[in-house]
């Protein structure tokens, strides 16, 4: 089975989310957790951005072992030199250089010609290669770039020494069909294509980041760039936990290996949410609070009989816990099961009254809590006769 490398950019692209800046201690902790979770590469920052990021990156490079550490740099001499300096003590360093390649970016942002862009790419990759044996090149805004020009761009990058070629959907413009066609076309036509690992970096502006990453895998990508909780610029990136779950749940469709330790995902999600002050939406796939929660009576009944009826991924596999949410949509079996879980002891004769009382109070509660269930049980047993306050 081929390996899909997961390249985590939480500490670089993820931290670019507005308001998500982390201090040096939090960045180091997240890097250690990522290493423990088994990601293949940690992009620890863009060191030319500030002295603080360079210092933080140097600390991560020195202290986090057993995992590749990458530094991002534009195809600019100073950026590349600072990246090399930040990675000086890394066990497994990678310099990740990039340049925009769409005509829109070349004309409006960089104000250079295609020929000048190729020259910068050759020089940038070659300079990075002199400092580090492992160099990755990204063509920013690749999904909106001219395909024929991308052939020239990536051929030049590989010839200059890039080992990994990344195809970013920088603004989340592509559809899965677009991404598959682009990746397949590039792998077929770029000179030296077989010498490089092909990578994909997808954004979620149209809600298709994970789907686009999967399409790229279908077309031959063997590295996916992603972030914890899918954080990142604008609508964010492909979520690491989602792509890891796809590989874990669907080996029939994606027969590839991943080094990620699935049971670490829930802990990682909580740590990143806390460090960045960005709560995870409740219905977020894999790590959201409701990802393994069930309130519908029909679903709860099925779950009690066989969890596979409504769960394709065991909550414990990602370090989470499945739960029943008791509310007005819950059925009697779930109410009784939850009561038994928390140690409520009501005889068979009192159970119908207990279930009816729970159904009654559920009409005025968003969720019926364990405390509510205990109070109802006490009243049914005659221990407490006061009505439950609404």
Feature tags:
single chain, 390 residues, alpha/beta, TIM Barrel, 2 domains, 8-stranded parallel β-barrel, two-stranded parallel ribbon, 14 helices, 12 strands, 13% strand, elongated, disordered C terminus
- Return the structural class: alpha/beta
Assembly type of the chains comes to single chain
Helix content: 40-55%
Approximately what portion of the residues adopt beta-strand conformation? 5-15%
| Largest beta sheet: strand ordering | 2-3-4-5-6-7-8-9
Largest sheet: 8 strands, parallel, barrel
CATH level-4 homologous superfamily of the largest domain: Aldolase class I
Explain this structure to me?
- The protein is an alpha/beta fold.
- The protein folds into two domains: 2-276, TIM Barrel; 293-380, no CATH class.
- It has helices spanning 24-37, 51-63, 77-86, 103-110, 114-131, 147-160, 176-189, 209-218, 240-249, 265-276, 297-305, 332-341, 351-362, 370-380, and strands spanning 2-3, 5-8, 41-43, 68-74, 93-100, 135-140, 164-169, 197-202, 223-226, 256-257, 293-294, 323-324.
- An eight-stranded parallel beta barrel has the order 2-3-4-5-6-7-8-9, surrounded by nine helices. A two-stranded parallel ribbon has the order 1-10. The protein has a two-stranded parallel ribbon with strand order 11-12.
- Helix 11 (297-305) links the parallel strand 11 and strand 12.
- Helix 1 (24-37) packs antiparallel against helix 10.
- The protein starts with a strand and ends in a 10-residue tail after the last helix.
- Mean pLDDT is 92; it is low at 384-390.
């Amino acid at each position: 089975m081929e390996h899909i490398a997961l390249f985590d950019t939480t500490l670089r692209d993820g931290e670019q989310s507005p308001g998500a800046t982390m201090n040096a201690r939090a960045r180091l902790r997240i890097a250690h957790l990522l290493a423990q979770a088994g990601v293949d590469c940690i992009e620890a920052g863009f060191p030319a951005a500030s002295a603080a990021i360079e210092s933080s990156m140097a600390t991560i490079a020195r202290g986090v072992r057993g995992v590749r550490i990458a530094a991002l740099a534009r195809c600019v001499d100073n950026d590349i030199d600072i990246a090399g300096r930040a990675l000086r003590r890394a066990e497994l360093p990678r310099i990740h250089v990039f340049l925009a390649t769409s005509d829109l970016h070349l004309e409006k942002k960089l104000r250079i010609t295609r020929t000048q862009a190729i020259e910068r790419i050759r020089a940038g990759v070659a300079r990075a290669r002199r400092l580090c044996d492992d160099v990755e090149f990204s063509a920013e805004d690749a999904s909106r770039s001219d395909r024929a020009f991308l052939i020239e761009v990536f051929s030049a990058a590989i010839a200059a020494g890039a080992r990994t070629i990344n195809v970013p959907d920088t603004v989340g413009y592509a559809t899965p069909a677009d991404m598959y066609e682009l990746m397949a076309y590039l792998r077929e036509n770029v000179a030296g294509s077989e010498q490089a690992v092909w990578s994909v970096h997808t954004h979620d502006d149209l809600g298709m980041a994970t789907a686009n990453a999967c399409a790229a895998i279908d077309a031959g990508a063997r590295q996916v760039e992603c972030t914890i909780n899918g954080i990142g610029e604008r609508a964010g990136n492909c979520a690491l936990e989602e792509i890891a779950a796809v590989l874990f749940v669907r080996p029939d469709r994606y027969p590839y290996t991943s080094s990620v330790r699935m049971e670490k995902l829930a802990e990682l999600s909580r740590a990143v949410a806390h460090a960045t002050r960005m709560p995870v939406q409740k219905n977020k796939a894999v790590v959201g609070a409701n990802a393994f929660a069930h309130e519908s009576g029909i679903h709860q009944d099925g779950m009690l009989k066989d969890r596979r009826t409504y769960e394709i991924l065991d909550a414990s596999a990602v370090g989470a816990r499945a739960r029943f949410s008791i509310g007005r949509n819950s059925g009697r079996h779930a109410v009784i099961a939850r009561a038994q879980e928390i140690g409520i002891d009501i005889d068979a004769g009192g159970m119908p009254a207990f279930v009816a009382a729970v159904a009654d109070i559920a009409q005025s509660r968003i969720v019926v809590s364990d405390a509510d269930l205990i109070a109802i049980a006490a009243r049914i047993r005659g221990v407490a006769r006061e009505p439950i306050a609404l």
